């Protein structure tokens, strides 16, 4: 239990540390990796270089510190991060390492302003915060291993099929090497792939949403080739999967994880909205709704640059044709012919209002995923259409951020 004095110090210094948050966490990662280079086998190097991971860590640490006397209010956030930590095999022994170098980084950045009393208080607070994460993640590790078909750490899977969906998007069908059952997953969850490309000093981990409905004997991930063709950073893992992984090869996976999942205890309508490769969790949800929930009206809206960039379209169209309660709409930035899509340009509030009924806007749950600018736009449009916040659900690919 933290003393009232410790709580007072931590909460009073949150604004100061928050102001320097990204600088502190950038410094933290630098000195931690220098001392513990083995941790580079866990962290996403691209998110480090783009400052997404330092920013996400800063937001979490300072939100927890600001609520140090009522951490239970942050439990949903803790669970969301816990899913990612469990999927990456972050273990209890990693937390003292993080705490040590986080305190060093605070001292390095703030200098004399970070007094011994402040550092001591933050050390105590970090210990409490770390224990909350450790306890939540311990339950997740046990559940992942003890469920039917579950396992711990990494399990080898064979690539049974490799299907090129578009020029830059490919699906991989994965079955366990031992042919034993696989763990169930909730529509919207992801698995984590571990690879070590030739010439790489470290292993690389990436989360990929499962793009089939649960209940089968294999997993499918649908991966966009990143980086190599658009002059952006990244693409180490996706390019490796596209170029170097073939049918018969083995990939190592951790069990499914994630809290962006379809609520299946409702009877209200569902609207799924995706942009680009953000369709992967949506297609899993769509399969589930189409095949298992015939009484639940479902509308799926997908946005892509054009028909050539639209993965899994035939599969999705077939679901719509075979299930009367499913409606599919497409939005392309550029159309080749009139029959290509239902809307040309970008998804906007006016068009959404024209294709969604008043009941949809008042009752439906909305799930969306895609590039961050796309999600910001969709979130704004749903707010403009007065969709209640508790019916708006979304997933970030990578560290969590904000859509505000």
UniProtKB/TrEMBL annotation:
Transmembrane segments: none annotated. GO terms for biological process: cellular response to nitrosative stress; nitric oxide catabolic process; response to toxic substance. The record marks 29 as: Involved in heme-bound ligand stabilization and O-O bond activation. NADP(+) binds at residues 276-281. Pfam families: FAD_binding_6 (PF00970), Globin (PF00042), NAD_binding_1 (PF00175). The keyword Zinc does not apply. Keywords: Detoxification, FAD, Flavoprotein, Heme, Iron, Metal-binding, NAD, NADP, Oxidoreductase, Oxygen transport, Transport. Binds 1 FAD per subunit. Binds 1 heme b (iron(II)-protoporphyrin IX) group per subunit. It catalyses: 2 nitric oxide + NADH + 2 O2 = 2 nitrate + NAD(+) + H(+); 2 nitric oxide + NADPH + 2 O2 = 2 nitrate + NADP(+) + H(+). Residues 152-263 form the FAD-binding FR-type domain. FAD binds at residues 190, 396-399. The record marks 84, 395 as: Influences the redox potential of the prosthetic heme and FAD groups. PANTHER family: FLAVOHEMOPROTEIN. Belongs to the globin family. Two-domain flavohemoproteins subfamily. In the C-terminal section; belongs to the flavoprotein pyridine nucleotide cytochrome reductase family. Is involved in NO detoxification in an aerobic process, termed nitric oxide dioxygenase (NOD) reaction that utilizes O(2) and NAD(P)H to convert NO to nitrate, which protects the bacterium from various noxious nitrogen compounds. Therefore, plays a central role in the inducible response to nitrosative stress. NCBIfam families: PRK13289.1 (NF009805). This is Flavohemoprotein.
